[in-house]
Amino acid sequence: MKIHTRREFLKTTALAAASVSLAGSFASRARAAGTDRKIGFALAGLGNLSTRQLAPALQKTKYCRLTGIVTGHPAKAEQWKAQYQIPDRNIYNYDNMEQMADNPDIDVVYVVTPNALHAEHSIKAAKAGKHVLCEKPMEVSAEKCRQIIDACQQAGRQLAIGYRLHFEPNNLECIRLAREKVFGDVKIIEAGFGFPIGDPTQWRLKRDLAGGGPLMDVGIYALQATRYLTGEEPVQVSALTTVTDPVKFREVEESIVWQAKFPGGAIAFCSATYGAQGLAQFTAHAQKGWFKLDPAFNYGGIRGLRSDKQEIHLPAIDQFAAEMDDFAQCILNHEPTRVPGEEGLRDVKIMMAIYEAARTGKTVNLA
Ligand code: NAD
Predict the structure, then answer these.
(1) Pair (175, 310) in one structural domain
(2) Catalytically annotated residue among 63, 110, 163, 221
C-alpha cells in the first residue's frame, strides 16, 4: 500500500487501537477524591489531531468531557457545535479566548495548534485561569517553553504536555525492562520515527510555525524513548541532516540522524524523516539481551519482541483518552502530572542542541 500523508500513515497503524481507556486504573484515585465531577476540556485548534483523535477520545474518557472549542473558522465551529452539542457560550476564537475566565464549563484548554503558537495559546488559557494540556513539541524554543511554565505557575494552574506514550502499556513495559535491568544494563538504543510528508504547503514545512522539520515533529518520540528507557538526560549530542528535495524542504530538514551519550554509559543513535516509510521503532541492546518495539510510537498496533523470544504485546488502549483521563485525575486530586512542562522544556533544549550539532558539525555538550 502506498502511503502519501501523515494521516494515512498513522491510520494504517491505528486500526488495532481498541477503545479501552486506561482510566480504569485511575478509578481508585477518583473515588478517593470523593467526586464524580468530570473535567471540562476545550480543544484549541480543530485540525487533524483534534478532529480524528482527541474529540473521539474524549468520548471514551471517564473523567473528562468536551465542553468547548477555540477555532478561527466559524464554519468549523458550526460543525463541531452540531456534532458535539457545544453551546454557543463555549465557542471561542484565538482573540477572545481570555474571556473563558468567566466560564466554569471549561477547566482545561488542550492546545493543538502549530508548534510556534503553543506559547501564545497556552498563556492565554492560563491567564483565563484554565489548566493547560499542550501538544508536543512544547514550543520552538526553550525561552517560549519557560514562558508557558511561568504563566501556568503564576496562574496556579497545572500544565501537562501531550506525551501520550507515557500512558501506553507496551512502552511502559519496555521502561520496566530497562529500569529493572531484566537484560542487564542497556548499552545501545536505536530509535527512529518518520513518514513521507504530503502537502508541500503545510505548516510542518515552515520554519516559523514548526520550529524545525521531522526532529521537532516525530523525532521527539525517538528522543523521548532514549530518555524514558535510560531514565537519564543526554550529556552529549552529534547530528547530521539531509535534504534531497530542496524545493519542498526549503526551510526545514528532510531527514536527520543524531547520536546521544548518557551519563550511565548508554549511547543512542536516532533518526527522523519526512522522506521515508516504515520507520517507527526502537531497539534497546543490553548486556544479556535486547528488546524492541516495532511499531513503537503509533496510535495503535504497538508490539515488540525480546531476545528470549517472548513477545511484547500488551492490550491496546486509546492513548489520548488515557492521557486526558490522567490529567483530569491530577487536577481533581491536586497531584502532579507525570508529563509536566519541565519535561517538554527538556526535550526542546535537547532538540536545539541537536540542531546546533548538525549546523556546526561539532559535538554539543549539554549541561
Ligand atoms: P493541523 O494542521 O491539522 O491543525 C492545526 C490547527 O491549528 C488547525 O485547525 C488550524 O486552523 C489551527 N491554526 C491556528 N492558527 C494557525 C496558523 N497561524 N497556521 C496554521 N494553522 C493554524 O495540525 P495537527 O496535526 O492537528 O497538529 C497540531 C499540533 O498537535 C502540533 O503541535 C503537532 O505537533 C501536535 N500533534 C501531536 C500528535 C500526537 O500524537 N501527540 C499527533 C499529531 C499532531
Answers:
(1) yes
(2) 221
Cell numbers for 78, please give them: 458550526
> Do residues 118 and 199 share a domain?
no
Please answer whether residues 188 and 268 qualify as being in contact, where contact means their C-beta atoms are separated by less than 8 angstroms: yes
Sheet holding 236-242, edge to edge: 311-312, 304-306, 289-293, 280-286, 186-194, 267-273, 255-261, 236-242, 364-365
Alpha helices (runs of H) in 240-318, residue ranges in sequence order: none
Domain boundary among 126, 149, 164: 164
pLDDT in tens, 237-257: 999 999 999 999 999 999 999
- Answer yes or no: is pLDDT of 218 > 60: yes
As for how many domains the chain has, the answer is 2
Instruction: State the amino acid at position 353 in one-letter form.
Output: A
pTM: 0.92
Helix, strand or coil for residue 143? helix
For residue 191, the domain's CATH number is 3.30.360.10
pLDDT at 22: 31
User: Is the distance from the beta carbon of residue 115 to the nearest atom of ligand 1 less than 6 Å?
Assistant: yes
In a domain, 135, yes or no: yes
Distance CA 184, CA 330 (A): 34
Atom number of ligand 1 nearest to Cα 299: 40
Ligand 1 atom closest to 48 (CA): 3
b (16+ CB within 10 A) / e for 194-211 = bbbbbeeeeebbeeebbb
Domain range for 68 is 37-164
